[in-house]
Fold these 4 entries.
Entry 1:
Amino acid sequence: MFISLDGIDGAGKSTQIDLLRKHLEAKGATVVCFRDPGSTKLGEAVREILLHREDIPLANTSEMLLYMAARAQLVAEQLRPALESGATVICDRFLLANVVYQGVAGGLSIDDLWSVGKCATGGLSPDATIVLDLDPELAFKRIQRGPDRLEKRGLDYFRTVRQGFLEQVANTGGKSTIVDASQDIERIHLQIVDFVDRIRGG
């Protein structure tokens, strides 16, 4: 099973991924976790450029294609082999994030992004997508580090991103749900595992 968690930074993805991993392992699943972009040498190098190398200017299309390249490598090198081995995969972000950040909020064609994404992933899409929904003002207060390149685009940009997630989550190709990330950690976790367990069949 392939599960992705998404939403704006500060919504608590990392915490919930770790809790979900422990829940699934307790049920006997072999679980591997990845982050997109990242989890390969190429992906980590691209991630550094995308989020932290502000000395390298990036056009919207260039930014989108870098994300796609990192994702293509992740699928080929790590994600697809893990699924073929029988593991359950949890991924911190996937194609939906590209569609929202570079499409809805960045102005690129949403249809083109889904199409390029299908090529980059070889048609692979999550069996379950969970979007953690949170007001950007609250999300920004939760972030305990300096802002990355995307976060410096400000609250208005992230309000558009948030709306984009709510609009586009239904187009992820699998079952999806939106979880209110302003709740306490345990309540969020219970809603996520209830959703995942129903899809897994118990």
Note: The two ends are 13 Å apart (CA to CA).
Entry 2:
Amino acid sequence: MDLILKYFPELSDVQIQQFEALQPLYESWNSKINVISRKDIQSLYLKHVLHSLAIAKVVQFKPQSHVLDVGTGGGFPGIPMAILYPDTRFYLADSIQKKIKVVRAVASSLGLNNVTANHIRAEQVEGSFDFIISRAVTTMPSFVKWVKHKVKKHHRHDLKNGILYLKGGDLSEELSSYPKATIYPIKDFFDPSFFETKKVVHLPLKFKNTKGFAKIPKT
């Protein structure tokens, strides 16, 4: 938790309480449903929470923005970002139902009224969003195919609407087809060596007509 306060010192008392509650909540749920690697649970704040919050060093979501988290797993990066931006709407989607069960329970326990979580594949999500966030669920070309028609037309942020992707390693080949992609090394934001090779990738996407407005159908 000290790591979070080091890099985000202006948290409110409510936000601090919510972040502090993550460790016991995930330890409890992980003993029933394995959503975080057993060896990583004691490094929750470093490897999952702070890693998720690297997105906030690239863009600060404005109130009433709509953000889709694809392949959220146990709720990352969506849950930490929802704590940090209580006035932004977050839609967390995953194809594994038991993981969404955990996400819903954690969001409810924290009182995160700005989170909707559903068991659904990315391709089935309807609506339009300012940004689509994710943590390395697949290669960028595959991910783009899933979400390329899900961005809003009008930009409200300094960054253009599109993908914010957390991924590590050498991305030169994977991003070779995307000249507009920008890579932000996380080591520029956070000191721990864990982030040495990790990045936030921003890829703007063109608006396409969609079927609705930030809706995820119940399943």
Note: The first strand starts at residue 66 and ends at 70.
Entry 3:
Amino acid sequence: MNEFINTIITRRSCKKYKSDSISSDIIEQIIEAGLFAASGLNKQSPIIIAVSDKNVRDKLSKLNSKYDPMKRDDPFYGAPVVLAILADKSVSTAVYDGSLVIGNMMLAAHSLGIGNCWIHRAKEVFEDKEGKKILKTLGINGEYEGIGFCVIGYPAIEASNIIPRKPNRVYRIHN
């Protein structure tokens, strides 16, 4: 099987991470993959906030937990690095473009042996007063919508179960 397709098929969400830090080189490779995601009319509207500072990471986790219906103590599952993806609200494809960025980063992380998981509630986090304060601190101006968080780290457990795909999800039209 093609190595890239195998990466797609074997990637799983990681929900338990080691506290070990990830080298900045690996983080940059993952970010680079996100920056090269397809975007509507090549507008490249998404931005990425890379957080490896534990205090800011914990602040984002606590803020995310505020909107988590399950009220987990750490909705980032202990991942040491959080990549927050936002996109310009004025771009009609912003949500799709940001989603592709996260997808690319998840696949890149997996290909490098880094566990990852998409975490929701970025929209709520960055609409919150505290979230807006973080954006302002970074000098991010404009109207951005939080699309999602991609948390990354070394997996504490290996997820190997590949659940079969549901049947009857492809419909074909032939000549």
Note: The chain has a mean pLDDT of 96.
Entry 4:
Amino acid sequence: MNIIKNRYLYFFISLLVIIPGIVYMGLNWQQTKAGPLQLGIDFRGGSLLEVQFAGPRPTAEEITALYKDFSTEEEPIADPQVQSLDLDSISIRSKAMTDETKGKIVSEMETRFGSKVTVLDFTSVSASVGGEVTRAAGLAILFAAAAILIYIWWAFRSVEHAYRYGTAAIIAMLHDVLVVLGAEAILGYYLGWEADALFLTALLTVIGFSVHDTIVVFDRVRENSHIYRRVEYEKMVNHSIVQTLDRSITTQLTVMFTLFALVLFGGESIRHFVVILLVGIFSGTYSSIFNAAPILVVWENREWNTWFKRKEAAL
């Protein structure tokens, strides 16, 4: 099995997967004016109220009218986003409001709609806290990338050009980050899914899985570089990938089957988190096999020196 031979095909497939996500990130930015993703209250601030009705569930228009009655200059909560959860429950997202206002709204719901209302969840985050969370999330990803680069450089210090392994791992990790962000942008655009703290948790978990699988392949490359000294570098790397292929696929499939079961039977509250994990782990498996190690070969052969020459020869 010659995986390295078709490396540019695999790079092209990655590009085809990433580009639509980038397009939808742009569409989200144009639509919300707040960023490439539909951000939840953890990042942009606001309030989330989830309630359950004992009787008939009111319409989105009735909830919007109720919120408008309680909207003030200090708490401009008019025009909330209303989403149905179950047959008798709804989720309402608005700008930040206090517990006191929430209590008044719930009381008014019971009076106006003639039904007992049970508060399932209430979260309120100020815009300033949301901004701090966004900055902290960006720093967390940058710190993770820097720590990975330093660790791999140190772990592979006995191999010639050790820094290449860390750089290739970071490129593969960025591939997975872009795939996850693109998937979130597409799901947010069509389904209204919002990136929240759980999404950040899923993203950091994907980074960990991606780098772990890449290191497994790189470790076999390191071992074989000492064993097969006279073998061509490209063949040695391909042999290393094939040796770890069964382990990588089997390990990741075990995780993915579990996540797929959670998507089907785990409930609405964790479905978003699990879907993002499923997409990210699949991407991580792909990038560690078809992107990370082939990048080492491209770098070793300095193939960028021949890219344009090939085009000129073709002309």
Note: Residues 203 and 243 are 28 Å apart (CA to CA).
